[in-house]
Design a protein that fits this description.
Blueprint (H helix, E strand, L loop, with lengths): L1 H4 L4 E3 L2 E13 L15 H12 L5 H7 L16 H6 L7 H11 L7 E3 L16 E9 L2 E12 L4 H19 L2 E15 L3 H9 L17 H18 L11 H18 L2 H10 L6 H10 L1
Parallel strand pairs: 5-6
Antiparallel strand pairs: 1-2, 2-6, 3-4, 4-5
């Protein structure tokens, strides 16, 4: 609403936008990370982008499967600003996620548990796309992992829903790895903006009215955390690349099986194999995802 009220007078690479400088957003329940909107419910592409990060790679063929618009930012077969290598192979080999886990295990009240994504050298070259995210910072307070994200730039309509999903999922992964609860999530943005060509789309979104935050995602299981994440990544590869729809992680908690089923449904939708989507929907453990699955059935 605030961005819609402001003048669209800021000219940037991708067009004219309205802007708020120095915005801070707070999410008291990070499990309520999914938009419940009919027009902005991005469960499938958000999950795909998270798994792209967790793949530790920045290959175009992976992410364009879920978000084709990434192709506009490609430099050959990669996305230069892709977060996976920056988080897990920083400067050629530093696993920043592992480092912040070690830091917080050794010093729970540390203020040093920071993952750096944007780098000064990003401005030295001529790249189509550089990271919008500067840092991801984690704190343990009151036996909970709180997270503070800083962004140099954030598209409120297109990018923000994906960022909130992926970063709060990382927050929950860190909390589970450390054996503590998930706390608050804060999201600070240098330039929070809305492009003028999305103004009418944003108006339709606002006209849907307020959305309940009383239907959060289920809590991520603590047991066998990394094994199940690896099996989820394997399932994603099989579905996207090999068109194999078997689930290689039947020993995992239903939470993880539901995420695999979401990936199956997304792929079946692309393949126009509509009849099989209803069957997989019936197998879902949680009904929280029905609002995202139903349009994939009705559209076909």
């Amino acid at each position: 609403n605030k961005l819609m009220e402001r003048p669209f007078n800021v000219t940037a690479t991708r067009g004219t936008s309205s802007e708020i400088i120095g915005a801070i957003l707070h999410l008291s329940n990070p499990l309520a990370r999914l938009s419940r909107s009919e027009t902005k419910g991005k469960a499938f592409s958000a999950l795909g982008e998270l798994l792209w990060y967790l793949s530790e790679d920045n290959k175009l063929d992976f992410i364009k499967y879920y978000i084709p618009k990434y192709e506009d930012d490609a430099e050959g077969e990669i996305i230069y600003g892709g977060y996976g290598p920056r988080i897990f192979r920083h400067r050629g080999g530093i696993n920043q996620l592992e480092n912040i886990k070690k830091q917080l295990k050794q010093k729970p009240f540390s203020r040093k548990a920071v993952i750096q994504i944007f780098d000064g050298e990003d401005l030295a070259g001529n790249h189509k796309e550089i990271p919008c995210t500067c840092t991801l910072q984690f704190f343990i307070r009151d036996n909970k992992v709180h997270m503070f994200t800083t962004m140099r730039s954030n598209d409120a309509y297109l990018g923000l829903p994906h960022d909130i999903f992926a970063f709060t999922m990382l927050q929950e992964i860190v909390a589970n790895a450390l054996g503590v609860e998930i706390g608050n999530y804060s999201h600070a943005v240098g330039s929070l903006h809305l492009y003028e060509d999305k103004k009418e789309d944003a108006r339709k979104y606002l006209n849907e009215g307020r959305q309940s935050t009383n239907k959060p995602m289920p809590a991520m299981p603590v047991s066998h955390l990394w094994d199940c994440i690896e099996l989820l990544k394997l399932a994603e590869y099989r579905i996207r690349v090999e068109n194999k729809f078997d689930i290689p992680c039947n020993s995992c908690d239903p939470y993880w099986l539901d995420l695999v089923r979401l990936l199956q449904i997304f792929s079946l939708h692309l393949l126009k194999r509509t009849g099989e989507i209803q069957k997989i929907k019936n197998e879902m453990y949680s009904r929280i995802f029905d609002t995202y699955i139903n349009p994939k059935i009705s559209k076909n």
